[in-house]
Amino acid sequence: MLCNVKLSNSSLSPAKLREHFKKLHGEGQYKDTTLDEFKLKRVRFDASATLPTLGFVPIDKPILTASYEVAYLIAKQGKPHTIGETLIKPATLKIANIMLGKAAENKLSLVPLSNDTIRCRIDDLSDDILAQVVADLVASPTKFSLQLDETTDVSNLSQLILFVRYVKGDEIKEDFLFCKPLTTTTKAADVKKLVDDFFRSNGLSWNMVSAVCSDGAPAMLGCNSGFGALVKADAPHIIITHCVLYRHPLASKALPPKLANVLKIVVETVNYV
What we know:
273 residues, alpha/beta, Nucleotidyltransferase, domain 5, five-stranded mixed sheet, 5 strands, 15% strand
């Protein structure tokens, strides 16, 4: 199933758009057409156009809602997107047929759960959650703080993970902000550019940040060219801190074995909480 139907890029060139407007809406036959007349034309188009005859029809709200709910469950469980059409939908149709009859099975068969559809739904949910978090950051009465770390995934690709802590109403909230690949190198300048680009595309700025926390890697906390130094150059008011949990294992290396075991238990307890 297609999530939407889009014009080709060539159709959206300014010259072709101007030509289309002049012919149909500017000096063309529809230049005096009112909005109500356009609405009537749209009704006639929906009733007799080619797309509806091929099966491309608007999805009823309950069907659309059910599709998003299933996609949300798949995303929460970390399951492959194909599970929607290979397991969930066949199982649902079997249950509906046995418990409720053929009519219920036919109705549930309309819920789109293909691999591409689930991917589109999850992308939509992700974008909506991010938009809500960004809106909360903009509306926060105080500056927010960031915690970030660079890691390498199973495909040997470096990923930058960013968390945010902020005030919403009377609560202090923590949310996952993004996980983006570092496609070039893992140098401080690349990390800074990635965060800068994210801020720019979401209407955020370093003036809204109060503190940044990371591990003690040279790329992050190097005195001259580390990420923290680059951030301080743009926003001197920001406090740069070294993550306490990273300091614990560093400190435990110089402790007697007995005290090191105690510290290990403390760190594990903190991580669990």
